[in-house]
Amino acid sequence: MKKLKTVLLSALLVGALAACGSGESEETSAAGEEKSKITFGSTAGPYSDMVSNAIKPVLEEKGYEVEVVEFSDYVQPNIALNNGSIDANLFQHKIYMDNFAEENNMELSEVIVVPTAPMGIYSNKYDSLDEIEEGTQIAIPNDPTNAARAFLILEEEGLIKVDPDVNPLVISERDVIENPKNIVFQPIEAGQLPRAVDSVDLSAVPGNFALSANMDLLDALKLETMPDEYRNRVVVSTENLDQSFVEDIKEAVESSEFEEVIDSEFEGFGKPEWME
């Protein structure tokens, strides 16, 4: 009987130690578990295609499962990022990201800037901006950020001059100090600018709306020289910025495979400074 008690006690002790060891192993495994799936949000169109065709394959080579979620507006991708429904998104430039984060009390951070469809000046009337006449009408975006981009293109072409003391990211018509051809500016909603090509002399169309209207970026009389502030970027919640999956996304965008897809499928997209 004494021998039986000793055996039972030993068995219980071994079982207890095994249970403790098992619990410690599971906790360590959970804490050290690497993220295996990345849910990537983007607006439907070229940037969803960029994620699917240029970023996703490289991440899959790294062992990730990648799901691409498409959105139809510019609000939901950041809301989904903030509530954890997605891990990263690609659709916005820095100015929009910063303003949205401040207005909605979010912590958003950029990971890397990507090639972006530039704004262009399009016309069915003129073959060159050198041909424009006195009183030429140009449709421009009615939102301040994109309107500033239109004015910068016109200034770069020598058609207007803007106040050099004004922040170039917030230029408006009142900052135009020289307009020798008396160009008439017609602000309209940005999504309507592709249609305006048929009804006005010139139209300044942001790249995403041009592509959505099946316009060829290379048909523009002039494509903007885009500051990186206006280029789209991969964005994550700031709390995840140091996670390994974020570094892997960055490496995927920096890869030669990514650039090969951009060169073959995204003609006319302006590359960010780091790619030049």
Automatic annotation (TrEMBL):
It holds the Pfam family Lipoprotein_9. It comes from the Bacteria. It is a lipid-anchor. The keyword Zinc-finger does not apply. One of its GO terms (cellular component) is membrane. Keywords: Lipoprotein, Membrane, Palmitate, Signal. A lipid is attached at residue 20 (S-diacylglycerol cysteine). Residues 1-18 form the signal peptide. SUPFAM superfamilies: Periplasmic binding protein-like II (SSF53850). It is found in: Membrane. Its main location: membrane. InterPro entries: Lipoprotein_NlpA (IPR004872). Belongs to the nlpA lipoprotein family. This is Lipoprotein. It comes from Alkalihalophilus pseudofirmus. The lineage of its organism: Bacteria, Bacillati, Bacillota, Bacilli, Bacillales.
